[in-house]
Every structure is written in structure tokens, then in C-alpha cells.
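hey so i finally got around to running the thing on that chain from the lab meeting. sorry it took forever, my laptop kept dying and i had to restart like 3 times. anyway pasting the input first so we r on the same page abt which one it is
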Amino acid sequence: MNYSILDFLTLIGSLGLFLYGMKLMSEALQKVAGSELRNFLAAMTSNRVMGVITGVSITAFIQSSSATTVMIVSFVNAGLLTLTESAGVIMGANIGTTVTAWIISILGFKVKMSILAYPIIGIGFPFIFSKKTRHQSWGQVLVGFAMLFIGLESLKSSVPNIGDNPEILEFLKNFTGGGLGSNLLFLLIGTVLTVVIQSSSATMALTLVMCNNGWISFDSAAAMVLGENIGTTITANLAAMVANSTAKRAARFHLLFNVVGVIWVLSIFPFFLRGIDSIAQPMTGKSAFVDATAVPIALSMFHTFFNIINVFMQIWFVKYLVNLVKKVVPEREDEQEFNLKYIKFGMLSTSEMSLLQAKKEIVVYAQQTRKLFRRLNTMLNEENERKFIKQFEKVENGEFKSDEMEVSIAKYLTKVAEGELSKESSKRVSSMLSIIDEIESMGDSCLNIARAMSRAYSNKTDKFTPEMKERIQKILVLVEKAFDTMIENLNNNNTEVTRKSAEEIEKKIDEYRNKLRRAHVRDIESDKYSYKIGTLYKDVFSESEKMGDYIYDVSLSIVDSTN
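ok and heres what got predicted. didnt touch it at all, straight out
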């Protein structure tokens, strides 16, 4: 078997295609996933049992647990599923993949999802050129989905072709029948083979070939199947490489779930195998320990019973397994921004208490927007291009999440307003809706300023002068003081202090903006800098002043709600 440098580069390229498809699909899903899709997935995973049934059904249909878990990771990455909701689906995928094992044992056939990939691209590609953003996003979802499976199929074909050369593994017959040590060795072999071949089903077929040739015994084959269960988790973990922390946790959950299952079954391995053999004998008429022809059915039965029992045993401990992977994979700092902390737990017993909950969430929303604003100062002073681009991407992503958070809070307040409210509480709901609208506009301003900075940064010959940067820095400091005052007012609701402090800082921002505007006109007339860079500079300080207006309007809304 020859394996050249070109073959290795093809393998790397296949991995790149797989990861890019995952990234493209996940990001497009975030754009197109409305409340309908979220509600559908939430209903399908409303409890652990429903999640398991969903996982079994999807995997049995597409004939690939790897494909199911990769899709689940992408859904988690897009925020369509929570980590807990994904757990049941991942468990169900392990049961669903046993259908593939039975098909291999009985028919020797496996559906290849890559066959559908090119027609899916044919359907999705025209949508990418649509003038409607939503249609473009749907096209990206379809193309990304297809690329993911083309990459996965290419991965399988780019690895050393062990499947067509099983004689390479003939030497393994020398290591069978060695008790626990032998079983652990074959478990490791099953894991490595599945990682290399990128398909537990393909490894299962290879295992059956070795059994039929009499190279390995039933217990060694069963140990390989356990290794395949661990090895198959590598695909989801590969997909999670380009995903957020929650998606990484979903992939790690899959690994943890399978490892725990392997540990408990190894502790009773001889007894478990004898039990499986006694059940399989009436179907085959022979013992799998004695006759190699009886192994395929017995091995498929072992695979099925193991996964079903494993799910039944661990489904009661999902909460603890989820908490464990949260500790193993901590959330990144930038992912803590624009996440609901209070209203995600639902409405409280009374409308009045629910309004208190909403108020806390709005304070969090304002604090997270201030964090987003502070990234502008980092961008302004960043000299390293890679770090600058990274900060810009964080602002861009933060603004997108800010929009989602505003919608979530608005929906919650609308639901609260449907209940019986006092006149004062109705006024507070109206005020809160105005406040979150202003905070969302602050996020828009942050992105507008970041874009102006990015255009100025990308201009290699004409950038912001040190004096420009110093002036921008000063107005950003004033706006941040306004942010601090706004958040303090949101917490205190002291109307007299609220209006006075808000007016003072707003007046300072307006005065300094006017000063910068006059100086800008003089500098342009004296050719101190080009009109092009001057326009971007003006955009920054004008948008900063506009943000000050939004901040002031929040404080006015607080005053109005208490009068």
C-alpha cells in the first residue's frame, strides 16, 4: 500500500473542506434560524426521552452517527439547541447507529450521504446570488451542509486504504485470547482505526471481515466495537474546532458519554458477552465463541444491547455529565457577552415580579453593551493587524447578538403585558421597551464606529493621525462616563439625580463634538489631512455623539416611568 505526500495533502485538504463546510453552515444557520425553527427543535428535544428518540430517528435515517453529532454540534453552535437539549440527541445517535451495524451484517450496504451532496449544492448555489439576505443565508446553509459531507467522504477516502487491505491486520490474530490485556489492546485498535477511517460503520465492516477470516475471536471483536464507539466521537470534536464553547461542550459530552459506557461494560465484559451469545444462539444455531459465521449477528446484537443499556443507565445523570463538561470546557470571555441571565428561566408567578426580573436583564444588557463599546478603544490603539481584525469581528458578532437579545427581552415584556398590570406597571413596560430599543441602537453605533475605524486602518497610506486618535479617545472617554451614569441610573431609579447627571454628561459630549466639528473644518481647509480620512474621522466622532443621545434617552425613559 503506497501513501504519498500528495495523498497526505489531500487528507489535509479534505479536513479543511469539512471544517469550512461546518463553519459556513453554522454561521448561516444563525442568520436564518427564526423562532419557528428554534421552537420546533425545542419541542423535539423538550425532554431527555424525546431527545433520544430524535437522535435515533435522524441517525437511522441518514445512516451515520457522525453526521448526526456534527449537525447537533452545528445547531448548538448556532444557538438553536442548548447543551442539555443536545445531550439526549447525542445519546440517541449512539442507538441509531446500531441500525447501520445490522444493515452491514445482513445486507453489507451503507447509504452514502455524499451522493446527495452535489444535488444539494445545485439547489442551494443559486440562492447565494439572491438579492434577499435570507435567501442568501439559506443557500449558504445548503452549500455548507453539502461541503461538510463531501469533506467527510473525502476524509474517509484519503486515509490509508486499510478497508481494502484487511490482510495488513492479519498479524492481530497473534494477540487474541489474552484476557483483559488483549481486550484493552483491541479496544485501542478499534479507536485508532475509527479515527483514521472516520467511520465507525466502516470499522465495524472491517471487524466483521477479520472475524469471518478467523483472525480475531468474538470477545476481541466486541472490544474493537467498544473502541469504535470512542473513535467515532472524533468527527464531532473535529467539527467543534471552529465552533464556540457550547458546541465544544456538546462534542466533549459525546466523548464522555461513550467513555463512561465503555468503562462500565468492561467491568462485566465476560458476563455481558456470554449473555449476548446465549440470546444470539437461537437465531444463528451456533455459538459466536466457537463458530466465526455466528459472529456478525452476535456482534450486531452486542452493539445494540450495549448502546441501549448505556443510554438507559446514563440518561438519569445528564445534569451531572453536562456540569462536568462545563468545567472541562470553560466559556470564553467574549461568549459571555449578550447572553440572557434572568428571563431565560421564564415568567415568575406574578407580572410584577416578572418586571423585576426584566429590569435585571436590562441592566445586564446595558453592561454587556458597555463591554462592546470598550472594544472600540482597543481597536483605536491596536497596531497588530491580526489582533485588530479579531477585535472588529468581536464587535460585529456582538452587535448581532445584541439584536437577538433585544428581541428576546421585547418578547418577554410583551408576554408580561398580556397579564393584568397596574397603571404604573404598564408605564414601566412601555419605558422598558423604549430602553431596550435605545440600547440596541447603541450596539448599532458601536458597529458603525468599528467599520469606520476598520476602513481607516485598512488604508495603508492614509490613516488616523496621532492628534485624531487623541481627540477620538477623549470623546470615547466622555461616552463611557455616560454609559456608567446610565447603568447607575438603571439600578437606582432616582429621578432627580437621574435627569441631572444625564444632562451634565450629555452636554459635555455635545460641546466636545461641536469643538471637533469646527476643528475638523479648519484642518480640511488647511490640508492638514485628506478629505477621505477626514470623512472617516468625522463619522467616528459624530456617531459617538449620537450614541450619547441614545444613552441620554435611556435616562429620560427612566424618569418618565417613575413620574
